[in-house]
From TrEMBL:
Its cofactor is [4Fe-4S] cluster. [3Fe-4S] cluster binds at residues 226, 245, 248. [4Fe-4S] cluster 2 binds at residues 183, 186, 211, 217. Coiled coil: none annotated. Heterodimer of a large and a small subunit. GO terms for biological process: anaerobic respiration. GO terms for cellular component: [Ni-Fe] hydrogenase complex; ferredoxin hydrogenase complex; plasma membrane. [4Fe-4S] cluster 1 binds at residues 17, 20, 111, 145. Residues 178-257 form the Cytochrome-c3 hydrogenase C-terminal domain. It comes from Thermoactinomyces mirandus. Keywords: 3Fe-4S, 4Fe-4S, Cell membrane, Iron, Iron-sulfur, Membrane, Metal-binding, Oxidoreductase, Signal. This is Hydrogenase small subunit. GO terms for molecular function: 3 iron, 4 sulfur cluster binding; 4 iron, 4 sulfur cluster binding; electron transfer activity; ferredoxin hydrogenase activity; metal ion binding.
Length: 263
């Protein structure tokens, strides 16, 4: 049964592009979640307050609701503090403290789950994932760049409804969303099985919807639910839009992506 009291959520952004927050807002039921189940106490993009007000509110929530609040981290965390100071304080230190007092910690996006773009070689800011920052704290990883809204909301809902994190795989991702590769359920897979491939974007094979494997598609080694769940409550995905998968939910995808991204 749903608890009547709303759960405080503190959403901290480190080195990020805010795309994960943007994606989160695309869930059809996000309003109900925000208004009925949680109190979003801190989010750089969504909080009405700013400056001292919002920082003070965050501090009081972390203190008053120790062991009760859910911490969401978006973005990789730079070990070089000078790259991320908010209100004169190191965000790295703030996230460590917030993670230690949280009831649960969720990493939204490949930046917080794996390091993502900020940690791409040569990683000048020495950015790390939340799990690397606080190895002694359990973290549920929801990778993707960004993750699909329903995957983020679904993970959060599981925590709120069952009062426990969803079952995770050996890498820390919820099994219910990351159990299959993009390739296993890809709508172009029948062409892969028949050996029918696009040789270049826009060629005859591409226009016929053939498999994009020869164009560097990372679907066979990428665990995500975009081909089964689709984006924005529709059956659309990067592959249905004509792009090969760049493996956005996998570790180091910025350094290991298709060759066309590394020219
Ligand atoms: Fe932006 Fe992608 Fe990082 Fe999310 S995971 S903050 S969308 S770069
Ligand atoms: Fe697999 Fe990519 Fe081909 Fe889809 S387009 S079948 S994911 S290789
Ligand atoms: Fe990302 Fe590949 Fe899906 S790029 S959104 S995992 S098709």
């Amino acid at each position: 049964a749903l608890k009547k009291q709303r759960t405080p959520v503190v959403w901290m952004n480190a080195l990020d592009c805010t795309g994960c927050t943007e994606s989160f807002l695309r869930d059809a039921n996000v309003e109900k979640l925000l208004l009925n189940l949680i109190t979003l106490e801190y989010n750089e993009l969504l909080s009405a307050a700013s400056g001292y007000q919002i920082e003070q509110n965050k501090e009081s929530i972390l203190e008053k609701h120790k062991g009760e609040y859910i911490l969401i981290v978006e973005g990789a965390i730079p070990l070089k503090d000078e790259y991320l100071i908010i209100g004169g304080r190191s965000v790295r230190e703030e996230i460590i403290a917030a993670a230690k007092g949280a009831k649960a910690v969720i990493a939204f996006g490949s930046c917080s789950a794996w390091g993502g773009l900020p940690a791409a070689s040569p990683n000048p800011t020495e950015s790390v994932s939340i799990a690397e920052l606080v190895p002694d704290v359990p973290v549920v990883l929801v990778p993707g760049c960004p993750p699909i809204a329903e995957v983020m909301v679904g993970t959060l809902l599981h925590l709120l409804i069952y009062d426990t994190a969803p079952e995770i795989d050996r890498k820390g991702r919820p099994k219910m969303f990351y159990k299959q590769t993009v390739h296993q359920v890809c709508h172009r897979k029948p062409y892969f099985d028949q050996g029918l491939f696009a040789e270049s974007y826009g060629d005859e094979g591409d226009l016929k919807g053939y498999c994009l494997f020869k164009l560097g598609c990372k679907g066979p080694s990428t665990f995500n639910t975009c081909e089964s769940l689709g984006w924005n409550s529709m059956s659309c995905s990067p592959i249905s839009a004509g792009s090969s998968c760049i493996g956005c939910s996998e570790k180091n995808f910025w350094d290991k992506g298709p060759l066309c991204y590394r020219k």
